[in-house]
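User: Just a sanity check before I run the rest of the batch. Below are the structure tokens for the first item. I only need the designed sequence back.
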């Protein structure tokens, strides 16, 4: 598109995106209901990072379904409702709405064609810098270093994770996978250092 539309007049609408797995056992036939886990929060975060980096072209993006179908944000069981890990991923990326994309170069060492760590950055309408990092490796953490001019302090750092990739929320345990404060991020000499745990969004 850059070759034939260098001025960016045309945009891309990603009208449906999301994961599609086998239905949850016991769910109604044809309803395409599936459980939503840490895996799906990472799928959502990876999509958000891609869309954000290509915001000049991606003018619209819509998750395929929102409630009880495919990669849903909400699951219901009669009168009960639970927020999924995908819902929490959406909430964590809210600061990227109406924000300006900041250039970010991520050196993942010897990762080759399949880097496990992905990131994007933005300056929000409030003037603050927002950074989203995901580690797709199910077993290994990654040492992260980021150089930032004028970095003064970390206002807030949150992490979305659980002990296993298939961890999910239920009516009985609705907060098993939910954002929590992350204390592992440190500023030093104008840079930012941390260890990014496996299968984490933060």
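Assistant: Here's the designed sequence for the first item:
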């Amino acid at each position: 598109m850059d070759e034939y539309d260098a001025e960016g007049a045309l945009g891309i609408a990603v009208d449906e995106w999301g994961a599609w797995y086998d239905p949850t056992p016991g769910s109604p036939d044809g309803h395409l209901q599936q459980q939503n886990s840490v895996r799906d929060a990472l799928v959502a975060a990876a999509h958000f990072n891609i869309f954000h980096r290509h915001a000049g072209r991606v003018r619209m993006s819509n998750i395929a379904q929102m409630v009880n179908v495919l990669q849903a944000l909400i699951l219901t069981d009669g009168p009960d409702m639970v927020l999924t890990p995908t819902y929490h991923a959406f909430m964590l990326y809210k600061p990227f709405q109406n924000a300006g994309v900041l250039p970010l170069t991520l050196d993942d060492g010897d990762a080759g064609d399949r880097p496990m760590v992905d990131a994007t950055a933005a300056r929000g309408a409030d003037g603050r810098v927002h950074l989203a990092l995901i580690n797709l490796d199910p077993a290994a953490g990654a040492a992260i270093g980021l150089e930032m001019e004028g970095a003064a302090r970390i206002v807030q750092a949150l992490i979305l994770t659980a002990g296993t990739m298939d961890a999910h929320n239920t009516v009985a345990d609705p907060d098993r996978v939910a954002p929590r404060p992350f204390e592992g991020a440190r500023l030093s000499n104008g840079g930012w250092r941390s260890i990014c745990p496996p299968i984490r969004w933060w």
